[in-house]
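Run: sequence + NAI -> complex structure.
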Amino acid sequence: PNNRGDHTNSKSIPLKSVAVIGGGTMGRGIAMAFCMAEFETILVELNDQLEITYAREKSFKRLKDSKIEKLRKNLQITTDFQKLQNCDLVGSSKYDVPCYEQVQIVEAVFEEMKLKKELFTKLDGICKTSCIFGTNTSSLDLDDMSSVLQNPTKVVGIHFFNPANLIKMVEVIYGSHTSSEAVATAFEACRAIKKLPILVGNCPAFVFNRLLGVYLNQSQKLMYEYGYLPHQVDKIVTSFGFLMGPLTVADMNGLDVMEKLKSENGWPASDFEKEVWTQKRYGRKRDAINFLLYPMMNEGLLCIEEGIIDHE
Ligand code: NAI
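>> structure
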């Protein structure tokens, strides 16, 4: 879409606290990024996942003392959505800008339209009208997602990349109804946590994942038609200056993300992809080892291992 001019001169809503819904691969990194920038951050998870989220929080303890202190001070993990309603009671004098007493939501639950719509419907009944709803969706249609809200103008895409506390780029996505204020607030939030926000229109898979899809398709061709090994393909790409190769990215992000992306958009999948999806072998994302590796990656201590597609 080329109506981006509408969004260039808007005022953002000053942010005080942030709620992240879903503490999985992305949610925990997003929550961490906000905590490090001294936002009061509420991470909401499902009951049966809470223990895992706590385990992840425990693994945070390998971080430097100053980072742990910020997490302890700023992060609250809960299953209680009602906490979002009272968020303005969490006193803060950290910002000397006038604050509307409001929370910004970034949802990072599973990539399912039905679930995200149910979540937004629920939040609409709980949160204040001024609250901006950000979605971390990788590919879903913002217009469809926001259609359940009384005021669809407050939905904006804030698409982080994994690991969200490290990767600088964030796609800020505007749908047909997204207000300029919501876009400006998303930009402001990204800047406050030292990210590089990029304005993107509402189209299938947005920008980066479209590119990643092409890289992955070609990487698989190299592997299955020409006998390259995954780490060899990635090495070629990183030799050109990319931070990570496409296969490492897919492995870390979870092959389920690409599965959703391709099936949602009707993009063709290779035999290899169909095979691993059927077996639900989603790469290191779903692996217990993730909990051990992740804190080290946060610290930049761990070089991503080369060419791991699965390690089950
Ligand atoms: P994940 O499966 O690792 O985590 C999702 C979390 O949401 C789980 O911990 C789950 O318990 C929680 N959850 C589900 N329903 C919930 C509810 N109603 N209330 C509270 N929590 C709930 O998923 P992941 O990979 O973190 O993806 C989340 C979103 O971020 C998806 O929309 C995905 O497309 C997007 N995304 C994923 C990226 C990746 O690299 N994995 C990159 C960028 C975006």
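>> summary
The beta strands are 17-21, 40-44, 75-78, 103-107, 132-135, 155-159, 169-174, 196-201. The chain has two domains: 4-201, 208-298.
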